[in-house]
Amino acid sequence: MQVGVLGVATTKFGELWGVSPRQLVRQVVTEALAQSRLELKDIEALYVGNMLSGILGGQENLGALFASELRLTCPAFKIEGACASGGLAFYNASLAVRSGVFKNALVVGVEKMTDHKPEEAAMGLMGAGSDSERQAGATFPALYALMARVHMQKYGTSEEEMAAVAVKNHYHASLNGKAHFLNQITLEQVLKSPQIADPLKLLDCSPISDGAAAAVISSGLPKSIKPIWIKGAGVATDSLGLDRRADLTSLNSAIAAAKTAYREAGITPKDIDIAEVHDCFTIAEIMALEDLGFYEKGKAGKAVLKGETTLGKGKLTVNTSGGLKACGHPVGATGVKQVAEIVTQLRGEAGKKQVTGAKIGLAHNVGGTGAVAVVHIFSS
Amino acid sequence: MQVGVLGVATTKFGELWGVSPRQLVRQVVTEALAQSRLELKDIEALYVGNMLSGILGGQENLGALFASELRLTCPAFKIEGACASGGLAFYNASLAVRSGVFKNALVVGVEKMTDHKPEEAAMGLMGAGSDSERQAGATFPALYALMARVHMQKYGTSEEEMAAVAVKNHYHASLNGKAHFLNQITLEQVLKSPQIADPLKLLDCSPISDGAAAAVISSGLPKSIKPIWIKGAGVATDSLGLDRRADLTSLNSAIAAAKTAYREAGITPKDIDIAEVHDCFTIAEIMALEDLGFYEKGKAGKAVLKGETTLGKGKLTVNTSGGLKACGHPVGATGVKQVAEIVTQLRGEAGKKQVTGAKIGLAHNVGGTGAVAVVHIFSS
After folding, report:
1. ipTM
2. Where is the Thiolase C-terminal domain (chains A, B) (predicted)?
3. What three-state secondary structure class fits A61?
């Protein structure tokens, strides 16, 4: 069965103190439906991606909550898989459409994080980690710092290479009016920013953000809309904590998820024009570029530093939205925003950040330190 | 595509202070796989139903967590929909198999509640309710008491009729070695038990329990096993809180979910031999029997009091497991346990609680006060 995306939307990402999750969701749903030329009554299933509403706000049952808010009475589900919640919600919605049970499914990713104290948000996020990591007092910057250090030792990856990821993603975000950060930064600024968890500095880390994104998936594709096709998808898991990983410089879950997605799509990494990858920390983008098969191990950082993945420079452009680093990382929204960015690019509607002639795009969303990863491949 | 259940398992339900969620999951997975004559390597997707691990314990990402624990690297998801989490996980796993992407999916429902203070568990559960209900200090007994009071006023339903639900379910649980409560109770004991939220008394309420359940869903059905077929399924949603309901004596979500499931199965309520219904409070079982089409409005309580739904008495036997009331209600496990009970009955393997000649069974799982409901119909 051919399944495509009809419409997508994202809110502005950032510190949205004056806006409730319900308002964020209503905004993206209205926009995504309009783009799909559908109405709420056409929606047959709702999939919500969210991680922290329960831990930080005591509110669960978000499938029913947002269905209720939208005055839908159709099946509604919340899918949670840490920072991959949005991508996993999209994945399950697309399976549901592929099953033939629903024609049109609505995916919403949403997170409200900045209403809480940063230390509360950090502890909430550690809900994605393992008991032993929490008990050791580790937070995600510390865990990714471990991975960065091993990557540096094994492949000679430098702090400049990591910093170049942040510089590129801030540049892309400066072209994206909806990004959390609209300012460009320099290598020097990244390298001189405060240490968070050596070798990661403040500007190597994605922010805590608020935001929402939506996508409409359909098997009943109207002639009046040019759908973007879901060509391949893969999900894979790995140990929850780092302690059981044989290698800290790759995410096995991402490698396996990508393999499944490439096989389903019948393509290779060389065919990809644009990718949104999960750059929760700059080292994560470097690992992603390698795990997804775009670069050999140890080569991705150098390529980013050379500008190969910057808009308008090379064959493959990465994180035109600004990525998690600069577009922002409202956890449950991130995976759906990645899809929204790819779909918008493949339609040629990405404005100042448009990648000329982009035909095939990939979205890569990771939960925890790689305990779960989901990869989708789209084509126009 | 024909999709069936190959194997099921439940742990003992109750206060399992000495056992971790991981141990509970390992136990049911081992049992359900053995019954399915499959090994872990045959499992292609894992669906976990859980509500409270984040709110009460700070642990999210349970799909990856349990995949990691079981040394699986396949796709893994957590589905949350309050007290319907287990049923919704089962529903999504079966959609995933119907999509043709996976042949064998494993569903696990699990909840650990008694390690926490009862007031913490009660507040956690209110994560299924609406803002206004939480702000009003309402808990679920209070909300179901409202529904009970209206049902009494509108249909003359009596406290004796409600108590009869508890008496029946404790009788059934006394035949189920895995139930939380193994003791039989009398109408008088229920009626004289302490008031919780008038007209509901202590013995009208389901307990807070620990437990897990598992089921293996497959489209590749070996000849050596008699599968139980998934004949129909439906999910529907309604307003999160009671404030927007036109009628407090029915759950529209349950009515709509049942309608979809009956249509898909091509049967009517009269065809059902056994049902596991969501009796979080005794009034909920009475409403369920009416919403599912087994009895006209106002007639179900009288039928239960007459013993029509008791094992060995009438055409339809309800909650042979003991239901939420007496088998126990480890939230995320409940919907999967219902499936396990129906499958075991339809195989004729339910021991002392076996319903003779049961051919078609129904499972009815509700989240919140009916914000979401899921109905499955099975046949041998």
Report:
1. 0.98
2. 234-379
3. coil
